[in-house]
Amino acid sequence: MDAQFLRDRRRALALLMAVGLFNFVDRLCMSILSVPIRRELALSDTEIGILTGLAFSLVYTLTAVPIARLADRGSRKRVLVGCLALWSLMTAGCGLASSFLVLALLRMGVALGEAGCVPATQALIADYYPRGERARALATWQLVLPVGTLVGFAASGWLNEAVGWRDTFRVLGVFGLLLAPLVWVALREPPRGAADAALATASAAGPAPKSMAPTGLVAALGELWSLPSYRYLLVGGAFIAWPMNVTLYWNGQFYSRVHGLSLAEVALWLALLAGVAGGIGLFGGGWLADRLGRHDPRWQLRVPGYAGLAVAPCMLAQYFASDPRLSLWLGIAPAMLLNAFVFKSGAMGIALAIDVRAQIETKSKADVQSRPNGPLGFVPSIVEFNHLTPGRSLERQVAIYNNETVAHTYTIEPLFED
User: Fold this and answer.
1) Worst-scoring range by mean pLDDT, 113-122, 160-169, 320-329?
2) How far is CA 322 from CA 255, 317, 370, 401, 416, in A?
3) pLDDT per position as a tens digit, 261-310
4) How far is 172 from 153, CA to CA, in rounded Å?
5) Do 48 and 257 touch, CB atoms closer than 8 A?
6) C-alpha distance from residue 133 to each of 163, 171, 222, 380 (Å)
7) For residue 329, with 0-12 CB atoms within 10 Å meaning exposed, 13-18 middle and 19 or more buried, which class applies?
8) How high is the pLDDT of residue 171?
9) Are 254 and 324 in contact, with CB atoms under 8 Å apart?
10) Torsion angle, alpha carbons of 120, 125, 131, 133, to 10
11) Lowest mean pLDDT across 90-94, 111-115, 130-134, 248-252
């Protein structure tokens, strides 16, 4: 690879991480800002549940695959920049909302934009980094989740205290709109398969690895559904997404209304819980699964499975504690366990979305057993992110096709006393 391509891909990864950071910040700001929004607009808990759940997740889930196909057939950069501009504009518009209906429509707009972030980003990374480096690049990009969660909670609480919830939405949206032209100018879209082609040209290892043949949407979904392991992951992911999203979107309401904490204090604590404790669980769960999985591959999913089982008793202890400080300290365990489940099981789901059988057929048993795991424990040991087909985002999006419809489409009846 030439020096210019190496510089381009480092700059590209930094820009893509900045876009991903805004993706999570703009998504999660509602979890903190729902507290003052509820008071000012006199919303019910059911309406808050729709704003943080159904209004967002239904649009996100239904549009993710079509946008991924659009990125497959056209410019990934155009899709990414257009989506960034759209969700940032909709986020800024939330500051003008005067009713539940207007706010719900604007959150749907945010979801429509954010649905294009992950597939376009992963497709670009796959074309900037060759097979041997792709796992590390994708794992590095995934750091935007704990960092974005931490920044989203902390910034929303601080800005709300300083300028109010309406201007908080405007500030976050304007920063995203300023980022969009920067990404448009600075991000160069690589040719599809560029990284593998460049690696093959620069080495004597032979031709670039062959990409798997594109799979149609119906065929891809049918193939995924035929795998019992994928069905189990799907159901397990849906069940674990309920407590995960309750902690993300309802902890602010819980600690401000039940324990009477100030919103700034709640935001700081939740930033530390979700960002720091969640990050520890993310890394720790992956590390433990990898370590135990060297001797028995079943531990790759046993670890997240046991973590999921331990979530319920830990959350019961957290929410039934009468002292708010004790409750928050007890919240460290659920935050770690939930992240330990989500990332390891999610990596396995992505692997299954790739043609696992074809990949295994090309490997000897010794190669499969000895192949090093992906960095930071994000990637399963048999089929890694390294084997993602360059330039194709749809298959990845189907793999990551999260269970947000199931996880978010709940309406919450009044749970708290004012």
Assistant:
1) 113-122
2) 11, 10, 50, 38, 15
3) 999 899 999 999 988 898 888 888 878 887 888 888 888 778 888 888 89
4) 12
5) no
6) 44, 36, 30, 15
7) middle
8) 96
9) no
10) -150
11) 130-134
* C-beta separation of 100 from 417 below 8 A: no
Amino acid at 360: I
